[in-house]
Amino acid sequence: MITDPDSAPRAISHKRSTRMMRALELINHAGTVRLADLVRELGVSPATMRRDLADMEDQGLVVRTHGGVRAFDAAQELPVRLRDTHYREAKLRIAARASELLPQGRYSVAISGGTTAAAVARVLATRPGLAIVTNALTTATELASRSNLQVIMTGGVVRSTSFEAVGVLAERTFNAINVGTAILGTDGISVRGGATTHDEIEARTNHAMVAHAERVVVVADGSKVGRVTLAKMADLSEVDVLVTDSSADPTALEAIRAAGVEVHVAEG
């Protein structure tokens, strides 16, 4: 029996996820941090901090050392288990607003990976007459039991950090279909970089989805607006709509709007 909720290997509570995110920020900022300093900064016991660090090391985010921990890669993509609870309220508002942009009745939607895109999928779960194409295992699993939906899952190689199927098999699925709207999650969106992500193979897969959609809706919390990451999924000219929240940088938002993208800000 598991008596300590922090020791559960699969379900990460919001409290623990927030703590691990904060620890990762401290470690990436300093490069190397002593265990005692993390314990003091985060207000937890040494045993709890060791469990958190062990989990983070298993995910390739940090490297534990004698008496402390060092950053593995400050630019490392966060695993979906941690990202799922970050900016949760903003993502729910974004998802609700994005779902309102889809027409009623029979319609086809492609949904990428990413926690904000997954939030849109959950809002759409009760809608009748939708065909949903996705390369995200989490989204496909959550929607597959819904008899009101037709769910199409791509093939491909599954990325351990995002649970997305990517590569040639996934691209072939997207190339074989046409959808009304693509809901695209992103790690960054800006005038300079377009819609970007951390992984170049994921970017190619998502671009295949974008290329076969009549309309592309990017859903991104405010921390992603104005940000550029490694690999481009779509030029800004390929994006029709951006749905974000009020924490987004106003200057970056205005530049995106001036470039011809319809911008919706989901207020709190």
Roughly how much helix do the residues carry, as a percent range?
25-40%
Q: What is the chains' assembly state?
A: single chain
**Could you describe the largest sheet, including whether it forms a barrel?**
7 strands, parallel
> Number of DSSP helices?
10
N/C terminus separation: 40 Å
pLDDT averaged over residues: 88
Low-confidence region ranges:
1-11
Strand coverage percent: 15-25%
Shape: globular
Radius of gyration: 19 Å
Structural class: alpha/beta
- Report the order of strands and helices: HEHHEEHHEHEHEEEHEEEHEEEHE
Total strands: the figure is 15
Spatial strand sequence of the major β-sheet: 6-5-4-9-12-14-15
Mind sketching the topology for me?
Blueprint: H1 14-30, E1 32-34, H2 35-42, H3 46-58, E2 62-65, E3 68-71, H4 80-83, H5 88-100, E4 107-111, H6 115-124, E5 130-134, H7 137-143, E6 149-153, E7 157-158, E8 165-166, H8 168-175, E9 179-185, E10 188-190, E11 194-197, H9 200-211, E12 213-219, E13 231-234, E14 241-245, H10 250-258, E15 262-266
Parallel strand pairs: 4-5, 4-9, 5-6, 9-12, 12-14, 14-15
Antiparallel strand pairs: 1-3, 2-3, 7-8, 10-11, 11-13
